[in-house]
Amino acid sequence: MKQKNVGRFFTAPVIITLALLALVILASIFAPLVAPYNPEALDMAAKLQMPTAAHLLGTDNVGRDILSRLIFGSRITLLSALAVVVISVIIGIPLGLVSGYYGGRLDNLIMRVEDVVLAFPALLLAFLFVASFGKSITSAIIALGIVYVPMISRLTRSLTLMERGKPYVESARSIGFSDRRILFRHILPNCVSTITTQLTLDIGSAILDLAALSFLGMGVQPPTSDWGAMLEEGHAYIQSDPMLCIAPGCAIILTVVLFNLLSDNIQMYLDPFQRKLPPFKKLKKMAGGLVE
Amino acid sequence: MSEEIIRVEHLQKNFQIRKGLFRNSKKELKAVDNVSLTIHKGEIFGVVGESGCGKSTLARCIMGLSPVSGGEVYFQGTKISSLKSGELKPYRQKMQMVFQNPFSSFNPSMSIRQTFYEIGHVYQMKDEAITAQCSELMMQVRLPEDVLSRRPSELSGGQLQRLAIARAMFLNPPLILADEAVSALDVSVQAQILNLILDLRDSLGLTMLFISHDLTVVEHVCDTVLVMYLGSVVEMGPTDELFANLLHPYSQALVSAKPKERPDQETNHIILKGEAKTAMDTSGGCRFAPRCRYFKEGICDKITPELREIRPGHFAACHLFDEKEDTI
Amino acid sequence: MNKDSIVSVQDLNVNLMTTRGVVCAVRGVDLEIKKGEIHGLVGESGCGKTMTAKSILRLHDEKRTLYSGKILLKKTDGSEVSVLELPRKELPSIRGEEVAMIFQDPMVSLNPLLTIGDQICEMLRTHTELSKPEINARMLDLLNMVGIRPAEERSRQYPFEFSGGMAQRIMIAMALSCDPQLLIADEATTALDVTTQAQILELMKDLQRRIGMSMLLITHNFGVVAEICDRASVMYAGKIVETSSVQELFDAPQHPYTRALINSIPRSGRSGERLVTIPGAPPSLLQPIHGCAFAPRCQFATEQCRQIQPPMTGTGGHECACHLAGAGKEDVQSV
């Protein structure tokens, strides 16, 4: 018998979170249409203005509209964060699957290498990359991608360890399925939902780390700006014209919080004990129909 | 005599356990100690024992999932215990297992049909052949074909266990192993599965190694029974004969420990003293000696009893039968 | 409430909110547990026996459970309380002190980081006013009572040093520490080997003899019922279908489900025989159930059975919820 599910994923908090995230993402995709000004357009006459009707978030030290810069900057920030997560997943998931499934020396080797990576603060590793490969957003993305690998890898590894002991995996082995098939067609699909919660969290972390790198000049190079670079450009004016920092700062905070909330809600939904169920009052009404 | 499917000779499986503060003192755990058995085609062979007796380890050694420490395992005449894991693969497919927990026996993210089709595809069966095989199996395990479209989470334990049996039969393996296959089921569902196993034996000549801790279930469904205690065989023989004439004190205690079937039933529960030690603290002598009510100092604690034929086809390993010609 | 009862469950209904909807786990259960008796609550998985027992201690998630009906408990001092109506903060005075419960897996019920002596003493410290040396003495007493010897030495050991059977004895010792009136054992021997189970059942019977312990034994194993229970109630789909003394239950089971269940148990000496099975499956408790829940699977079902829920009827301590009970069915399958 088909069993329906009364716990909804799309509860009010989730819908609001998704709506706001959609707003941010759509704004960034359709930036040329949404942004009121060209982000690069200098207008020395209108520099360092407070928010007005013409410039909703004011202008920066060379007269560029802050709102437009924010919108165009989001493209780089979001895309880079996505790239970081994609890299960590492409490398991390297979590593986790393999070390969890085979164990032994291979597992040890992978874990110790990851320990080394984890020992480095993200920024330090980025410095190393930049020193070797030059300053650019690509270096930053690759460096962060590598730093994020251990988290995904370990999560995948513990999920794999859990699934590996289950009879359906043993049955697949005894039927003679190849290890590759077992890992990717049997174990991985059952890990995907938990990994997704970690991924959404990671996008948030990546946004923060990338902003930090750009702030330090390691990430995106001028004239392009992302939110971190905007912070860097504005920090000299923080006492006189705080809007230059407040705008990108709030943008970062808001976006990261939204991703964290999304991750929390996915995780709560997956855990049957935390899943939001209809409230107690409704329980009475629903039960009423069942008792003779 | 029908064809021999499995022959196990003097199987030994030891585990090294490290103890001590720096894990430097090694002790040997004799999980399976000198076990020999033969399973013929069309036979349901039962292995019964309590937890820690080594029955699951025995199954894993037979299936080639665990390398053996000594002795041989022959599958349809071929010695598989000495094969490397690559060479072993074709033999593993000929021994399929049905597990204890029906709910985790199937991949939760795949429908039953997908599970079966995957097996078929990996073995290069054509779609029509797979569909035909599925229909045939559903009929044999007495399930309606619409369960194929379902996911495991939508099915009951009884249905899943039947599907597990169907899956085990999919590639027509000569041997099926059932490891506590009915232990996790409700009584009425268990009855259905036991009937099914008996029917499959009669109609298809199903050969099965049936592992269980439940004596009555084993008595019901098996043709031959082997009783294990802490890794060694204590008694073995045809079911009816064995249960009619229990020879070994442990078997007697095991049977008598069963709760009554009726409140007014006369029972003389043999309550064993103490607890079963692990298979580690064994230093010669019978492993059951410390708890045995017939314990004879000097013999039982020093000399390991041999498994000998006491009655026709009925073997026991106990010093009680040393100088006697007849049974107790 | 009867004079000699210590627990009286009256028309208990328990509805649970789960991820699949509302489940009517218990649909109108009446149960009396008498002082000094071992009462078995038998049934297959999903029949509501654990839910019923947990309700006596109100162990559910209050936000997701809806109760109705009454559970009356006669305390040691003679007063009666209605468990379902007690304010939350008074529940600890019932739990452990009046009613104690042990569960299926003793290894997860014990705290692995404390010695067993400490755990029993903690129980005593929480519920009693005894002094430290008195608590210690009582703890050793309890260990001796359940057969863990030498008590002094073993009380300093940790749970992992004990086997399943021993751990269950420790749980029983903890449960008895505050002299409860009722011990509820939820599948307490299911996870144990048959030889160990025999030891634990022997211990329970001994306790009943020595200290007049009343027990509610939840099990799916009729053997356990036959072995130590005085009376038993059979549950199906959230309702009790039959209650009687154990001897009568086996001699003359009245409800078709009871009979079918007893017949589907493999028995010794019948190797190779096909067992009698019950066609179909238990109904889903997510949907309303009309009439007798067992009717779809019952070979004697009539139209009345399908329409009207049969009430519990019967005399002489043997009650049964079946329209056809006592109507002289010819093909009664004897046990």
Which helices and strands, and how do they pair?
The complex is a heterotrimer of chains A (about 290), B (about 325) and C (about 325).
Chain A: H1 12-29, H2 31-34, H3 66-102, H4 104-119, H5 122-133, H6 137-164, H7 167-175, H8 179-215, H9 227-234, H10 243-270, H11 280-288
Chain B: E1 4-19, E2 25-40, E3 44-48, H1 55-63, E4 70-75, E5 78-79, H2 85-92, E6 95-98, H3 112-122, H4 127-140, H5 157-169, E7 175-179, H6 187-204, E8 208-212, H7 215-221, E9 224-229, E10 232-238, H8 239-244, H9 249-257, E11 308-311, E12 314-316
Chain C: E1 5-18, E2 21-34, E3 38-42, H1 49-57, E4 65-74, E5 80-82, H2 91-94, E6 99-102, H3 106-109, H4 116-127, H5 132-145, H6 151-154, H7 164-176, E7 182-186, H8 194-211, E8 214-219, H9 222-228, E9 231-236, E10 239-245, H10 246-251, H11 256-263, H12 303-307, E11 313-315, E12 318-320
Parallel strand pairs in C: 3-8, 3-9, 6-7, 7-8
Antiparallel strand pairs in C: 1-2, 1-4, 4-5, 9-10, 10-12, 11-12
Helix pairs in contact in C: 4-5, 5-7, 7-8
Search tags:
heterotrimer; B: 328 residues; alpha/beta; Rossmann fold; four-stranded antiparallel beta sheet; globular; C: 335 residues; disordered C terminus
What is the structure about, briefly put?
Chain A has helices spanning 12-29, 31-34, 66-102, 104-119, 122-133, 137-164, 167-175, 179-215, 227-234, 243-270, 280-288. With 292 residues, chain A is mainly α.
Structural description of this entry:
The complex is a heterotrimer of chains A (292), B (328) and C (335). Chain A has 292 residues and is mainly alpha-helical. Chain A has helices spanning 12-29, 31-34, 66-102, 104-119, 122-133, 137-164, 167-175, 179-215, 227-234, 243-270, 280-288. Chain A is flat and about 75 Å long. The two termini of chain A are 23 Å apart. With 328 residues, chain B is of the alpha/beta class. Chain B has 2 domains: 4-94 and 173-321, 3-Layer(aba) Sandwich (Rossmann fold), CATH 3.40.50.300; 95-172, no CATH class. Chain B has helices at residues 55-63, 85-92, 112-122, 127-140, 157-169, 187-204, 215-221, 239-244, 249-257, and strands at 4-19, 25-40, 44-48, 70-75, 78-79, 95-98, 175-179, 208-212, 224-229, 232-238, 308-311, 314-316. In chain B, a hairpin with a 5-residue loop joins strand 1 and strand 2 (25-40). The longest helix of chain B has 18 residues, at 187-204. By secondary structure, chain C is an alpha/beta fold. Helix content of chain C is 31%, strand content 24%. Chain C contains 12 helices and 12 strands. The longest helix of chain C is centred in the middle third of the chain and has 18 residues, at 194-211. The radius of gyration of chain C is 21 Å and the shape is globular. The two termini of chain C are 34 Å apart. The model of chain C is unreliable at 328-335 (pLDDT under 50). The chains are: A mainly alpha (292), B alpha/beta (328), C alpha/beta (335). The interface between B and C is large, with 44 and 44 residues.
